[in-house]
Amino acid sequence: MFQLNNVTKAYECRGQTVNALNKTSLSIGDNEFIAVVGPSGSGKTTMLSLLGGMMAPTSGEVLFHGESLYDMSLVERTKLRLRSLGFVFQSFNLVSWLSAIENVQVPLSLAGESASAQQERASELLSRVGLSDRLNHLPSELSQGQQQRVALARTLANDPRIILADEPTGNLDPESREQVMNLLSEFHSEGRSVVMVTHDQFAAQHAHRSLSLVDGTIVDTPLATNAA
Ligand SMILES: Nc1ncnc2c1ncn2[C@@H]1O[C@H](COP(=O)(O)OP(=O)(O)OP(=O)(O)O)[C@@H](O)[C@H]1O
Ligand SMILES: [Mg+2]
After folding, report:
1. CA atoms of 215 and 50, how far apart (whole Å)
2. Predicted confidence (pLDDT) at residue 227 exceeds the cutoff of 60
3. Which of 18, 47, 197, 219 is the pocket-test mutation for ligand 1 (most atoms within 8 Å of CB)?
4. Fewest C-beta atoms under 10 Å: which of 55, 121, 160, 186?
5. Contact in structure between 172 and 144 (CB atoms under 8 Å)
6. What is the DSSP pairing of strand 33-37 with strand 193-197?
7. pLDDT tens digit string along 201-211?
8. Is CATH 2.60.40.1470 the right assignment for the domain spanning 2-226?
9. Sorting pLDDT into bands at 50, 70 and 90, what band is 228?
10. CB count, 10 Å around CB of 84?
11. Separation of 168 CA from ligand 1 center, angstroms?
12. Residue 115 alpha carbon to ligand 2 centre in Å
């Protein structure tokens, strides 16, 4: 599904060059659940951004189903992102002045769905993440775990094939953490893929394969015993 070929990402910052990824290659198959681990600053978020079509590499190529992501036009790449990819961030990124249901409606509205179809699908997704009784709450009126579940419902709205998650459990208490990981495992068991950056050992155990990033280089460690 994804292929990184000899990818380097260098950031130039005030005369200093940081190679966040360094000539790294990697193959990610269909229906994988991958945990990406590694110390702070080792290039994990950089790798997710490259996979997600959000940032071009300095050299090397990123293939998605055999097609070079950064040789596509911006329009093609954006379409692919809207159609196939879902993102989950540590800090939820909910729109603070929209209710839970309105937040989930945002991608549906962007995809051109009618207002009634948006509402129906958004409330179905919020039920799926256990929030059918919080549809009209603002993010500030929800707990951290509930906010992350609204964010997950929003991510699922466009029915993505792949979820790219950056520390999805970083801000959560143990119970919410378990709910979020169960949702991601369920998503994976439906035949989809998850690439998840995490510092959290509990979260990593849900993955079937683990990648370590050390100074911008990927070390692949299959986790045969970790199948969730
Ligand atoms: N926009 C930027 N400009 C300059 N350097 C950057 C930029 N973004 C990241 N870096 C550098 O690239 C390296 C990798 O950053 P990245 O955000 O990918 O790390 P990370 O593994 O996600 O870390 P963390 O676990 O702390 O989130 C870091 O050394 C960082 O300082
Ligand atoms: Mg990061």
Report:
1. 16
2. no
3. 18
4. 186
5. yes
6. parallel
7. 889 999 999 99
8. no
9. very low
10. 18
11. 18
12. 36
Q: What single-letter DSSP state applies at residue 199? A: S
Task: Evaluate whether 167 touches 197 at the Cβ level (below 8 Å).
Answer: yes
pLDDT value of position 222: 63
Quickly state the pLDDT bin for 90 (edges 50, 70, 90): confident
A 10 A CB-CB count for 87 gives 20
Q: Would you kindly state where each structural domain of the chain is located, as residue ranges?
A: 2-226
Residues in contact with ligand 1 by the CB-under-6-Å rule are 11, 13, 18, 20, 38, 40-46
Decide if pLDDT at 139 tops 60: yes
> How many whole angstroms separate alpha carbon 8 and alpha carbon 59?
5
Which ligand 1 atom sits nearest the alpha carbon of residue 21?
14
Least confident of 114-123, 194-203, 213-222: 213-222
220 secondary structure, DSSP code: E
Whether 224 has a pLDDT exceeding 60, the answer reads no
Cα 74 from Cα 28, distance rounded (Å)? 23
